[in-house]
Structure formats: C-alpha cells, structure tokens
Specification:
By secondary structure, this protein is an alpha/beta fold. The protein has nine helices and 16 strands.
Length: 378
Amino acid sequence: MEKLKIGIIGCGYWGPNLVRNFSACPLTEVAAVCDSSPARLEKFRQTHGHLKLVGSLDELLDLPLDAVAIATPVTTHYSLGKRCLEAGLHVLIEKPLAASVEEARALVELADRHGQILMVDHTYLFNNSVRKIKELVEAGELGDLYFIDSIRINLGLFQHDINVIWDLAPHDLSIADHIIGAEARSISAWGCAHADRGIEDIAYVNVDYGDRMLANFHVNWLSPVKIRQMIFAGSRKGLIFNELNATEPIKVYDRGIELGEAAEGAEGRHKLLVGYRSGDVWSPHVEPSEALQGMVTHFAECIRDGTTPLSDGRMGLRVVQQLEAANRSVRAQGGRVVLSQGAYASAKTDASSNRPGEWDQDRGGRPARTRRDHSLLR
C-alpha cells in the first residue's frame, strides 16, 4: 500500500509535532502544511524547506490528499473539519473536537454520512502508562473503582480563547472515559479567573459516574510547581500514575479497608466495623514510547483497515459534552449539571429540586450509571 498523503493544518505550537510524527510514521507522508499566517509559514520554512507550504485551505484541498490533521484554535475546528470531511478526506482534530456539543455532534454525523474516519487527538490514550492502567483495571487488579483524583497543574501556558478547563481537562476526561468505560451522569465545577477576568485559570471539576464512582479533576495555570498525577482507588488496591516519574510512572498499592459486619453498640446503634489493610507496593514495567507516534500510526491504520479509532468522534463528543456542562456549572457557581443522553437538563431552582442550584433531569431522580452508547447522536 502506498503511503497515505497527509495535510497538516496549523504550524503553531502543536502542528510541528504532528509533522514530525507523521513524517516518521511508515504508513504516512506529509504532503503539505497549511497556515493562514505568512509569518508562521516563513518561520516553519526555515526548518522544513523540503515540505510544500500553502497559505489557505482552498490551496490545500486542491492537492491530492488522503487525510488532514487539524491543529488550530478550537473555535476553528468545526469549520475546518466540516470542509475537509465534505471534500472526502479523513480527519484528525486536535483536542477538544469542537467548541460546542452542537458542532461536535454535527462533525460526527457528517463523518458518518460520508463514510470518513473522524478521530480526536486524545494523545494520552496512546500513552503506555495509560494502556497499562486500563489493562490492570480490566483484569480486576484494583477491584471495583471507587474514585479517581487527578491533578494537572503548572505555571502556564495561558490561552486566550479557552479557559483552563477546555485546555487541560480534556486529557483527564478522556483518560477517565477510556478507563471507566461508562457514561458520566452529572458534573459540578468551580473556577475563577485572575489574569483575565473572562477566562478561568483555576478550576475543580467533579464528575459523578453513578454506582458510587466519583472523579475529581484539578486543573490550574497558576501553580508554582508542575504536577501530573492521577490516583485510581478501588475495592482491592489503589494506583498512582505520576507522569513526571520517567522510571516508575505507575505504582500499585495493596492498601485499603476491610468492612466487617455491623455490631450493635451500647446505645443500640449499629457501628460499622472497618479494618485497614496495608500490603506491598509494586511498580509494573512500562515500555517507554512516544504516545503521539502511537496516535498517528493508529489513525493511519484505521484509514487503511476501515476500523473505528480508539478516540473516535463519539468519544470526542462525550468529552465536549462534559466540558460544556462544566462551563455551565462554573457560571452557576458549582450547580450540578445532569447529563442525559447527550443533552444536559435545564436548571431547576424551585423547592422540588434536590439542592439549591442543582441542575437535574426530572423529579423522578437521576439516571443510573450505564455503559456508554451512541445516544449522543439521537
């Protein structure tokens, strides 16, 4: 099979990384790079003079291409993705998929109609540490998952078009979506802005997956230190993923609680018997690799074989749904947004609501945790 011809749209921060990895992939070749900024193109030309550079999407679409990779601001993802899909090209889009649920859903439906591959660059799903975590969870090593606690903080990089939730949380939301394999049922988020009054630079996002499974995500552009850590705690064991630990990124802790039968106390009250278990700590071997290379190779293989990507448009849509709900919750000062078949419910503030400021589906209670399906597109 001939190499797939890839067009890269955007040569700012992330585009050069895509160029490097698509060039190194044995299944692909970079046919052209497109950017609307003459200054960026000229700077890119100094180090990539052998590549064809074009200044408009029209010029790019006139070339013989199989697919495009879009690495531009999120507000442009829908318009660029739409034109490329309509041109019969397979499309890879940098996270998040689009700037709204409506736009993300439209792209998924368009890709389905044209029979094209639509994939989102949720790079962490191709990180060998995340793959190992998925393997351990599916093997029952941790037991039933109780919670995920994530910290993704650093000093910068400040964005001017999206807040810290849309910038950093897609990483952790996509990891949780992949590991848990179930729909989120509600979200509550808090955030505040310091550098720019209209763009939150600190945020805390709480996601309820049902069955007593919670996830908390702290994202922050103002931290004096860089931390990239996720804790997965289960009924049998716990696991810590420290991305900054190159030698032992994963540690599994045989620690937890043992619940005994309740005993009746002196006052006739039942007391829960809780015991603590402390066992070994071990670090599984994780083969070093570049996740981005795995991602572009997977994209090419899905095009070649006609298979569904791991981070397909539907996953991208689920993540955008959660991001949009988190934004609405921040605006409602933490009001919980209930997710129901791809659309969050309207706000309720009357006396029948579960809590003041809570966003709920109906008075009959919240939906149970369910395995994911394609209801977002219905």
